[in-house]
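Action item from last meeting closed. Structure (139 res):
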């Protein structure tokens, strides 16, 4: 807190936020996509393609089988504006893998040849005797 009293005839200069919000990128995150900027379209073009997901120290190939836009909420636009990001429509994705790969919910390393490496919070939502589906939600 400043020791200088407020002078209404001489208010402090208005500080403009930077045009692009600063993003701290650690060396291990270098080259990873900024998750706040990924959209439904970024994933939709990779529908039915393989993504390598590391579950409990084992890399397993999953297929992106569904990408669905979710209803928008007013708060999404406010949050995006506050962060200096373009507004993104919320969406959900389903990744399908072998049943024996089920690991519970958690944040897992995901890799795709074109999209690179990212960490996604995934929840197992359904399955059969042969496969397990994991859901990822972007708001």
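Sequence:
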């Amino acid at each position: 807190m400043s020791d200088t009293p407020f002078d209404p005839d001489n208010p402090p200069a208005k500080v403009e936020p930077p045009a692009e919000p600063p993003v701290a990128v650690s060396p291990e995150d270098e080259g990873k996509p900024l998750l706040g900027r990924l959209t439904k379209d970024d994933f939709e073009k990779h529908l039915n393609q393989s993504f390598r997901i590391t579950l409990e120290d084992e890399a397993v190939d999953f297929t992106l089988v569904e990408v669905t836009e979710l209803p928008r909420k007013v708060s999404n636009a406010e949050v995006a504006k506050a962060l200096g990001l373009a507004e993104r429509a919320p969406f959900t994705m389903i990744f399908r893998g072998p049943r024996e790969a089920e690991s519970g919910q958690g944040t897992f390393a995901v890799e795709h040849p074109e999209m690179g490496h990212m960490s996604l919070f995934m929840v197992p939502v359904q399955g059969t005797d042969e496969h397990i589906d994991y859901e990822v939600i972007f708001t």
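Note appended to the action item: Helices lie at 40-44, 74-83.
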